[in-house]
Amino acid sequence: MKLLPIAALLLATAAHAEDTVSRQIDGMYPQLDAIYKDLHAHPEIAFQEQRTAARLAAEMRKIGFEVTEKVGKTGIVAIYKNGAGPTVLVRTEMDALPMEEKTGLPYASKVAAAHSCGHDVHMTAWLGAARTLVALKSQWKGTLMFIGQPAEETVSGAKAMLDDGLFKRFGKPDYAFALHSWPLAYGRIGYNSGAVSSNSDAIEITFKGRGGHGSAPDKALDPITIAARFVVDVQTVISREKDPKEFGVVTIGAINGGTVGNIIPDTVKVRGTIRSYSPAVREKILAGVRRVANASAAMADAPAPEVELIPGGVAIDNDDALVTRTEGVLKQAFGEAQVFRMPAMTASEDFSLFVNQGVPGMFFFTGVYDPQAVAQADKGGKPLAFNHSPFYAPVPEPSIKTAAQAMTLAVMNVMNGSAAKP
Ligand SMILES: [Zn+2]
Ligand SMILES: [Zn+2]
């Protein structure tokens, strides 16, 4: 009989925790909004995030974190110790993309870089979560390890931080979280257990021929036709060799060769990207690309091409136990309908490098668009700008609030082994 009041009390306190967190974030929102618009208007590309890192470092010091700058070139590490408990890593990326912004927003970038992947949303939510966690420090015990990672877009910042001794100098965390804005309705949170992002490998192939006059192809060896054959034939690796139930993509995004119409060039350079989830599929595609490149040259009796396969991002593997544990607290806070499991994305991310050091991790997505606009787009209406579009324009409020709240609750939940206490 005594269980009933205790159960009721537990429910009441759990509900109280979400309310406390959301009240904190509501209270600080005007400042977060100003920081967001400032970061958005001043984007910096990979490994050039000087101003951005300085701004985040200053904000984190104000909150009470011990901040180390220039970890992995422009990265920052902010530590907050609050008694005995787990160490939880929370990552934000800081870099923008080298592209022109076309949103027309009053706070749009005016330089040749843009936050078209929402890293400014992540930084602001990261600051909001840090501030909320410190404000509610009586409700959890442990160490916060908030990191500002450079160069996510070039899939090189996580490696730079690890190579600079991130886990040796600051300790290896017990859990790791990161979030990413996505063209979902704001208020929605999606994630997956297992693979969430793809393996990414770059291809660079130089086909070698022998230059000559366009009117006398017999006196030359034409690398343009070799490259053209390769571009078409390489797709059979995907359609005829890969298991059709498994994800795998080869895209050739650039062909460079020749200058004018009547000269056969010496060489043609082809560049592309390969995406996959499973290591076996990745190996199969890499081997297939190399074989088709060699065969295309051999068919023309040309010298073997130079084939460079450059490894990039490794697929993120979300920890099943951590996902299940976090899912509970997110559903309680945002409601069953708003929190859902979504398929893995075909893009790549280097958050996987932290997780692959043996740290259970969870990477989740938060929505940024008006639910009505999303519903219209789903019905075939105006499509919404995807990440990396020059028109990508997250709605700051409530997107940032939801992201900050979700991250705070996820961290508190693992610090306490249960929902926060009042
Ligand atoms: Zn991106
Ligand atoms: Zn991104």
Can you put this structure into words, describing what you see?
With 422 residues, this protein is an alpha/beta fold. It has 2 domains: 3-197 and 315-416, Zn peptidases (Aminopeptidase, 3-Layer(aba) Sandwich); 199-311, Alpha-Beta Plaits (2-Layer Sandwich), CATH 3.30.70. Helices cover 40% and strands 23% of the residues. It has 12 helices and 16 strands. Helix 3 (119-135) links the parallel strand 3 (87-93) and strand 4 (142-149). The longest helix has 39 residues, at 3-41. The two termini are 24 Å apart. Residues 418-422 have low confidence and may be disordered. Bound molecules: zinc ion (ZN) (2 copies).
Labels describing this entry:
Alpha-Beta Plaits; Aminopeptidase; 2 domains; binds zinc ion; disordered C terminus; four-stranded antiparallel β-sheet; 16 strands; alpha/beta; elongated
| CATH structural fold name of the largest domain | Aminopeptidase
Strand content: 15-25%
> What is the rounded distance between the termini?
24 Å
Structural class call reads: alpha/beta
Helical stretch count? 12
CATH superfamily of the largest domain: Zn peptidases
The SSE string, one letter per element, is: HHEEEHEHHEEEEEHHEEEHEEHEHEHH
> What is the spatial order of strands in the main beta sheet?
1-2-4-3-5-16-6-15
Radius of gyration of CA atoms, rounded to a whole number: 24 Å
Mean pLDDT: 94
